[in-house]
Amino acid sequence: MKIIIQRVSQASVSIDGKIAGAINQGLMLLVGVGPEDDQSDLDYAARKILNMRIFLDTDDKMNLSVQDIGGSILSISQFTLYADTKKGNRPAFTGAAKPDRASQLYDQFNALLAETCPLEKGIFGADMQVSLINDGPVTIVLDTKNK
């Protein structure tokens, strides 16, 4: 899995002009699923994200997790994280998992996160408009193949 993690003061996702999910302080995730991903990738990513200390404590140190601050997560499926740009000018997306498998793993991943943290999400495969205010800015790339 490849996941872009952004610390946000607010974020929302709209589909066909209607808000499908919105959060205040927390994390906005762009989630890409690869063809080799399995349950161990889901478990690893969920554990890292839920416990990642990227929120400021009273001493202005990044020392608190999304759980510590009572924050929420907005999760957005994002197959384009697997873009191959080596040849030509049009990216190829053959490195992403097939849609049926990716959708299943994305749903399982969201279920893991939702066990611990309030979760909003987009709709897998939909044309979405995402708005966010990146706090910091803090943006982190997590690749479960680099454990």
From TrEMBL:
<dbReference type="GO" id="GO:0019478">
    <property type="term" value="P:D-amino acid catabolic process"/>
</dbReference>
<keyword id="KW-0963">Cytoplasm</keyword>
<dbReference type="InterPro" id="IPR003732">
    <property type="entry name" value="Daa-tRNA_deacyls_DTD"/>
</dbReference>
<dbReference type="InterPro" id="IPR023509">
    <property type="entry name" value="DTD-like_sf"/>
</dbReference>
<protein>
    <recommendedName>
        <fullName>D-aminoacyl-tRNA deacylase</fullName>
        <ecNumber>3.1.1.96</ecNumber>
        <ecNumber>3.1.1.-</ecNumber>
    </recommendedName>
</protein>
<keyword id="KW-0378">Hydrolase</keyword>
<dbReference type="GO" id="GO:0106026">
    <property type="term" value="F:Gly-tRNA(Ala) deacylase activity"/>
</dbReference>
<dbReference type="GO" id="GO:0005737">
    <property type="term" value="C:cytoplasm"/>
</dbReference>
<dbReference type="GO" id="GO:0000049">
    <property type="term" value="F:tRNA binding"/>
</dbReference>
<dbReference type="GO" id="GO:0051500">
    <property type="term" value="F:D-tyrosyl-tRNA(Tyr) deacylase activity"/>
</dbReference>
<feature type="short sequence motif" description="Gly-cisPro motif, important for rejection of L-amino acids">
    <location>
        <begin position="136"/>
        <end position="137"/>
    </location>
</feature>
<keyword id="KW-0694">RNA-binding</keyword>
<dbReference type="GO" id="GO:0043908">
    <property type="term" value="F:Ser(Gly)-tRNA(Ala) hydrolase activity"/>
</dbReference>
<comment type="similarity">
    <text>Belongs to the DTD family.</text>
</comment>
<comment type="subunit">
    <text>Homodimer.</text>
</comment>
<keyword id="KW-0820">tRNA-binding</keyword>
<comment type="function">
    <text>An aminoacyl-tRNA editing enzyme that deacylates mischarged D-aminoacyl-tRNAs. Also deacylates mischarged glycyl-tRNA(Ala), protecting cells against glycine mischarging by AlaRS. Acts via tRNA-based rather than protein-based catalysis; rejects L-amino acids rather than detecting D-amino acids in the active site. By recycling D-aminoacyl-tRNA to D-amino acids and free tRNA molecules, this enzyme counteracts the toxicity associated with the formation of D-aminoacyl-tRNA entities in vivo and helps enforce protein L-homochirality.</text>
</comment>
<dbReference type="Pfam" id="PF02580">
    <property type="entry name" value="Tyr_Deacylase"/>
</dbReference>
